[in-house]
Design a protein that fits this description.
By secondary structure, this protein is an alpha+beta fold. The chain has 11 helices and 13 strands. The protein folds into 3 domains: about 80 residues, Phosphorylase Kinase, domain 1 (2-Layer Sandwich), CATH 3.30.200; about 210 residues, Transferase(Phosphotransferase) domain 1 (Transferase(Phosphotransferase), domain 1, Orthogonal Bundle), CATH 1.10.510; about 35 residues. It has a 6-stranded antiparallel beta sheet with strand order 1-2-3-4-6-5. It has a 3-stranded antiparallel beta sheet with strand order 7-9-10. A hairpin with a 2-residue loop joins β12 and β13.
Length: about 350
Amino acid sequence: MTELAAGRILGPVVLERFLGEGMVGTVWLGRHRSLDIPVAVKVLRDDKLRQDGRYRERFKREARLAATLDHPGIVRVLDFGDEGGAPYMVMEYVDGTSLDWQIKRRKDPFTDQTVLRILLSVAQALRCAHAQGVIHRDLKPANLLLSSKGILKLADLGLARIEGGASLTHERVAVGSPAYMAPECFQEGHVADAASDLYSLGVIGYYLTFGRLPYDGSVQDVMRGHLAGSADFTLPTRCQPRTLALVRKLMAVDKRRRPADANDVAIEARHLLSGDDSSHSRKAVGSSGNSSDLADLTKYLASSSSEVDGRTILHTTTRERRMVWLILVAVVALAVIGMLYYGGSAPTAVSKSPPAASP
């Protein structure tokens, strides 16, 4: 395969800039030649191409699965092709950062409203995917992209599968990222399902709530933690007990104790956000409110930075802006007080006329 570089043409796209690299592919910023819009282009890595073809088929399946999902909270696939032996997919470009980057750069856990909005957002996206029989199987903050407009989008369906479909992974190999995997996924022969995705969402909620993962150490230590359900929910947090209860329910070791489906999670998160404790029906929470809900994400992630045309743009929160204004007002007030004080106490020069000459 020819070396990828800026200016190379892949199907309808001209590559412009390298964005990053994952376990399976490299991602480039490109421009669609006919639509004249920025797009993200994912290209299968050379080392994966040289293997037994399993990755090529998985890559192709990812494109097909993502193309079937039409939801504002899921990254859209616009095209797929093979140029000179290099399989690629063209996706909508999300101008922003991953949720993983946002979490790692913060010193404190997120607020209650933040955690609930993210859970609501991801649950809505999962509801759409699960309704089409698509199981993500690798849900984690690195696969959640936050746009500069505050819209959270689910990405990377490379390990996804369709319920009832043939698997492209070895049956005895656990699929996913151990830190976020459901306990049943560590058991031999188990096939991940919608409940497994909900568990991973619970781990994301835990990470947001406490600022750390529930289990760390070796893969064996992490696995034992998931299987035992020994996560510590007594750590300092800014979240309310009701939010902790939702996260705990999502992380139940027995998947029968988890919410029935992603729609239930979305309903509960929305009611917690609105402060409604009344009983509610299982009326579907659609995607119509997704954009308006997620636009508020910029309020608590406003201190983040984003890359625009190669420049780092720093954003400040409302609280930070208020503090700056208070400091400025205080400085001006002190200056005025100083001027009045010293101006009023300064000695006044009195001009005395010389005595009149005697006649």
